[in-house]
Amino acid sequence: MGKKSLGYRLLCAAGLHFPEDYTDVSLSRIFRQFFLSTYRRFLLNTMNWALLEPINPRLLRPWILRRLGAKVGKSVFIGEHVNIDLNHANLITIDDDVHVTGQTTLLCHKKDMTLYFKGDNYSDLQYKLAPIHLCKGCSTGTGTLVMPGVTIGEGSIIGAGSLVTKDIPSWSIAVGRPAKVIKEIPHREE
């Protein structure tokens, strides 16, 4: 283990436990992160102001997600109480015509469990970051949780309450925890 920074030592003195990859955190980074997180949380909360409801889903919420760093296409619908990974929003790509319905969560980080063994401290595990891509015209059902590293294919529909842990192919319907493809969407017959 390398030398611990003043910022890391202060966090530990405050009773906070962080993994080894935080040992070089500077005091200025802690303050910067505090103010950035406060600003980002304010923007995220603004997405649900009732006063702005007529413009929220298709205008305000996509604009706010862009301000938070996400790549958001045209004609995107963002429902109420959508949660995103605030500190990693730059890893989220939402293509044109996507519907992200209410209470969907887009998560771009998770603990790396590959080096976790009996007797280890869960708090010492480092985070794994991975992008999320919602392809053109797809839709997430209410209460969907999309995990890091997932791509939801073009035109696909995710059922309400699903947990998406793996890529979903284009033009399919997936449901469940974890989400599994239950139907392929057919071509329209003339």
**Order of H and E elements:** HHHEEEEEEEEEEEEEEEE
Total DSSP E strands: 16
Give the low-pLDDT segments. Answer: none
Radius of gyration from CA coordinates: 19 Å
Mean of residue pLDDT? 89
Shape: globular
Question: What spatial order of strands do you see in the largest sheet?
Answer: 2-5-10-13-15-16
Short structural description:
Helix content is 21%, strand content 22%.
Folded structure, characterized:
The strands form four sheets. Strands 2-5-10-13-15-16 form a six-stranded mixed β-sheet. It has helices at residues 6-13, 27-46, 56-67; strands spanning 71-72, 77-78, 83-84, 92-94, 99-100, 105-106, 109-111, 127-129, 132-134, 139-140, 145-146, 151-152, 157-158, 163-164, 172-175, 180-184. The protein starts with 5 loop residues before the first helix and ends in a 6-residue tail after the last strand. It is globular, with a radius of gyration of 19 Å. Helix 1 crosses helix 2. The protein has 190 residues and is an alpha/beta fold. The mean pLDDT is 89. The protein is built from three helices and 16 strands.
Key features of this structure:
single chain, 21% helix, alpha/beta, 190 residues, six-stranded mixed beta sheet, 16 strands
What's the topology here?
Layout: H1 6-13, H2 27-46, H3 56-67, E1 71-72, E2 77-78, E3 83-84, E4 92-94, E5 99-100, E6 105-106, E7 109-111, E8 127-129, E9 132-134, E10 139-140, E11 145-146, E12 151-152, E13 157-158, E14 163-164, E15 172-175, E16 180-184
Parallel strand pairs: 1-4, 2-5, 3-6, 4-9, 5-10, 6-11, 9-12, 10-13, 11-14, 13-15
Antiparallel strand pairs: 7-8, 15-16
Helix pairs in contact: 1-2
